[in-house]
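Support reply, case 0932

Customer input (verbatim):
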Amino acid sequence: MRTFLLLLFLPFCGAAQVMAQSEGLRYLTLSDSLREGANSVVLSVEEEYTATSRNTAVLHRRRAITLLNGKAKAEKVLTEFYNDDSKITTFEMTVFDAAGNETYRARKKDLSDQRYDDDISFLQDMWIKSVKAPCDGYPCTIVTEVEKEVKDFAAVTSFPHWIPVGREQSLLSGRLRVNVPVDNELLFEGKHVADPTVTDDGKVRTYAWELTNIPAQPEEALAPSYSETLPYVRTELADFEMEGYAGSYRSWQSFGAFMNQLLEGRAELPPILTAAVHEAVDGVTDEAEKIDRLYRLLQERCRYVSIQLGIGGWQPFSAAYVEENRFGDCKALSNFMGAMLKEVGIASYPVLIMWDEKPYYSVHSGFASSAFNHMVLYIPSQDMYLECTSKYAPTGYLGEGKQDRNVLWVTPEGGQLVRTPALKPGENGHLRTTSLTFTEHNNLDFSMAATYYGAAQETFRQLGAYRGDRQDQLDWLHHNDFLPDVTGSNYEFAVSTEKPEVSLAYQTVLRDKVASMGSRKFVTLNPFPISWIPEQTTSRSLPIDYSKCRFYVDTVRLTLPPEMEIESGLMSEPLVYSQTVGEYRADMHLEDNEVVWTRTLKLQPARLEPEAYAEFRQFFVDVAKAENLRLVLRERRTK
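Our regenerated output:
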């Protein structure tokens, strides 16, 4: 009946209005398979990217999405980034209620337009336009349309990385079209999507991808990135131009050659810096020591400031600029360090890297792209990476989130794809000894000495660098469960300048930590239990991507009161649990009147099939249970 009325009144209302209303009702025709497990449904998404030259393009995107409930909050907000190299020409949002009636149309006064702040960059020319849809009830359909003209830097970086549907979201239909001049070529790779249809009219070559009826994928803990499990397409323009620099994505070698253009002429040292370099290393014969001295000079002389302005997002400031201003971003500081090394005859390569716990896209040999967000420096003669943005890292320490991934060396011959070393559990963790002694009033004297190393020390190193006040440090350590309170004594906190190590010592009195019942006492032995347990679920659809890499060693020594002995809780044999992601071992013994409990936990990265989730979770359940052991003491019995 509703369809009949729409057709009947078609001559009397605008065609666009009828189309919009029908768009707001499309969710009524959705199959059960598209509703199951979905908080929202992408009714249609059409994205078209037209490259008009090697450095100019137009992006057009139209999307209609129905929110089925209030969980898809992020879908209410339309955002678009722009800068001096881009211009938003269309930015529209319309909202429909469950009956298909228009309830909101964004006006100019509704739009937010402000400089983008990534909490890292000191200055950048990126702005963000946004508007939020008011959905008073559900289902609610939101139709958005954006068109943007881009050039130079924005044109190159805006080429579609298309993931049209998210998790807990289904898709009815989606289409991506990319148009490029016939004298150029579109490079692409996709996953969970068919190859494109390619047409050519003699002037423009068009690549088109289509998707229909994609059911919702669940959001599951420790799942791989979206680009691994959802349909996606990545594209790059084979030959491009940016502010007069010509580049190519046809190979990693050619992309590295383009980066070399951006670096050219920026490593010349000013006289004052040349003198400082030679003062630091002249007379030193050992190359490793020269590198260490120059790295310390970098840390003393410069600070990290991220500035992202146009091509400056890729091109570093010169060494002379950094020396004059005493700051720079990752590219500028890596270039600065490389220039100092070059002055003393040590070769180095800038390195492009994705710094993230779990990279969003796979960087591999078959598809060159700018899937990077950071630069470090590599010294081939020492097989050493230098993180040049840190004022406090030991020489040669790369840092967590940058290991075991493909990176691009920018060598004089062009780009070379290599893999950074993987973390090893034995090099990342802690050694900690805790002593507990009974005192009056059910208190325990507490004494701890710990060494954190590798990736586990990074947070503590930052703590020492940015929280110099003793009480601030104690408050932070207590809040994050590294100390039992903040009122103790003999607090020592030492950060090694030579190795990735931080040591911590502390003494205090733990009050009311011993429970009494009659002549018995009850005490929890481990003051720092590892209690993380993955969420429980009845089924699992996605692989488990576990990335933790640690080796924890804890020893607790509990001195018993002379008049008491252990009634229960003493372990008769070692407790051992093992799983692909880790190994746990704990044992306990008596040394005179002292209980000694020692535990080791090794955690290592692994990719597991969904069917292994129950066993994976059970390992951490067993660990958490074993960590919370309790001793029962009674008055010592005489023979």
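We compared this against your earlier run and they match. Two observations from our side: The radius of gyration is 30 Å. The chain has three domains: 16-221, 251-419, 426-635. Please reopen the case if you see a mismatch on your end.
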